[in-house]
Amino acid sequence: MTISAGSPIIVSVNGLVKSFGAHRVLNGVSFDVRRGEVVVVLGPSGSGKSTMLRCVNFLETFEDGTITVNGAPVGYQSDSAGRRRMLDEKVVAKNREHVGMVFQSFNLFPHRTVLQNVMMGPVSVQHRDRTEARKHALELLEKVGLTDKADQYPARLSGGQQQRVAIARALAMRPAVMLFDEATSALDPELVGEVLRVMRELANEGMTMIVVTHEMGFAREVADRVIFMDGGVIMEHGAPHDIMANPQTERFRSFLGMDR
Ligand code: ADP
Ligand code: MG
């Protein structure tokens, strides 16, 4: 999908710094994601990809930098003197509603049916009308190809099916952006394709997405932009056909297996 430079910025990360104790895990990460864009984040294990996504969803606090999602600050706001203050939990919870996240582990509620899993957030967190939430949940289950599993319990589903429910559940909150953190890494190889297919369809429908993945084919074919992270910084950033074909740094070359 072609995204015009005039599309509104949905996620803006500026100078993000995050440490765990003395270990600086993110060292000044900045990027914007425009509406409808798919940004794929690549990088070796430990490079800070998950921490970065968790900061965008405010599952982590951070020491420096700013993040806004849909124009609203995530985590911190500046007072009139320019000092940064942590946002209170209510504001954070509100802002987090703009962000849908899908993890490597599916984290479905085991004692709720598939349909109940998808309806739960809209009904109990967003206080939406139950009938409307049910209708929307059924539409989302159709989108991910699981209409026939609506009344099943998660344990009866394959990993690929559970992950598709997790995607439907995140979409049910009508997020402005979807974050995927290695959503297919825990799946048996034969189940990876069905989840990638749903992600690709979402991308084609214009969903704004930040996708951490090791699926190079997905990065090449679906990403509008690719970010390569290493050691808590963005080493390379550009259109996939540019930077994946012509990596500028030794580390990205090596990551892509091009140094042999
Ligand atoms: P990636 O997702 O790219 O593999 P992570 O963001 O998970 O990288 O981790 C980046 C670094 O931060 C790693 O060195 C990891 O050990 C460390 N780290 C991540 N989470 C924590 C935590 N909760 N406490 C301490 N260190 C952490
Ligand atoms: Mg990770």
What are the salient characteristics of this protein?
alpha/beta, single chain, six-stranded mixed beta sheet, globular, 260 residues, binds magnesium ion, transport, 9 helices, four-stranded antiparallel beta sheet, ABC_transporter-like_CS, binds adenosine-5'-diphosphate
Structure description:
The protein is of the alpha/beta class and 260 residues long. It contains nine helices and twelve strands. The strands form three sheets. The chain has a six-stranded mixed sheet, with helices on both faces. Strands 2-1-4-5 form a four-stranded antiparallel sheet, with helices on one face. The structure holds adenosine-5'-diphosphate and magnesium ion. Residues 11-256 form the ABC transporter domain.
Shape descriptor: globular
Q: Give the rounded overall mean pLDDT.
A: 94
Total beta strands: 12
Number of helices: 9
- The ordered string of helix (H) and strand (E) elements is EEEHEEEEHEHHHEHEHEEHH
**Oligomer kind:** single chain
The low-confidence parts are none
Radius of gyration: 19 Å
Determine the N-to-C terminus distance.
Answer: 33 Å
Main sheet overview:
6 strands, mixed
Task: Please identify the structural class as seen in this structure.
Answer: alpha/beta
Which cofactor or ligand species appear? Answer: adenosine-5'-diphosphate, magnesium ion
Helix content: 25-40%
Subcellular location: Cell membrane
Keywords: ATP-binding, Cell membrane, Membrane, Nucleotide-binding, Transport
Function: Involved in beta-(1-->2)glucan export. Transmembrane domains (TMD) form a pore in the inner membrane and the ATP-binding domain (NBD) is responsible for energy generation.
Family: Belongs to the ABC transporter superfamily.
